[in-house]
Amino acid sequence: MACIDLNSDLGESFGPWPMGDDVSMLSIVTSANIACGFHAGDPAGILSVLREAEKRGVSVGAHVGYRDLVGFGRRNMEPTSAELIGDVIYQIGALQGLAKAAGSTVRYVKPHGALYNTIAHDARQAADVIEGIKSIDPSFILMALAGAPLVEQARAAGLTVVCEAFADRAYNADGSLVSRRLPGSVIHDPQAIAERMLRMVVEGRVTAIDGTEIMLEVQSICVHGDTPAAVSIARTLRESLVKGGVELKPFTP
């Protein structure tokens, strides 16, 4: 039987400003990437999501990003190595403290937004993130974009890597994500998303935006939690995978 993990970016609400329906998403996904306060999230809200994840048996990871609350971590930045290593360590440590209070444990790291996209191909910043992770705990799993150079770089450095696909994002022929600035970069039809992800899990392939068939190594699928139809998309995807004979379970031990 094929198996897959479903993950979502959660804990991103800030004070009185809500971002997504975390409780509903936690009833659907098997892993939760929890904001660490740099791109989004406040301590009280993060703690609440961690408690809910623990209650539901959802695996928890640190969603580390650039220090960019105003830009939601989606603006490209060039921190020095010392700054980026320190920021990664700081964010993981903060989430570990909150997780301990919630009776939970941080088991993996998934970079967020611009940092995620940058380190997929930028060897210097990737090395900084890897060093930050290993400084905290070399047994942490790194979640990375399937097919990106980062995957082999991190594995060569001794980290276990889980490769990720994005349920609602279009792919280029080289396996990279189509820029959000371009039309067709985000897919909104829940059924279309479910069908393409079921095929990806079962056959290991997906149709790129130009019609090219590409192969991807994938152990986890990200369903974004901050879009208007996020819960509907995630629920339709989960139901389709289960109906297709796919087992849903966290990639963490």
Automatic annotation (TrEMBL):
Lineage: superkingdom: Bacteria
Record keyword Protein transport present: no
GO MF annotation terms: 5-oxoprolinase (ATP-hydrolyzing) activity
Alphabetized UniProt keyword annotations: ATP-binding, Hydrolase, Nucleotide-binding
Protein family per UniProt: Belongs to the LamB/PxpA family.
Alphabetical list of HAMAP family matching this protein: PxpA (MF_00691)
Role: Catalyzes the cleavage of 5-oxoproline to form L-glutamate coupled to the hydrolysis of ATP to ADP and inorganic phosphate.
Record protein name field: 5-oxoprolinase subunit A
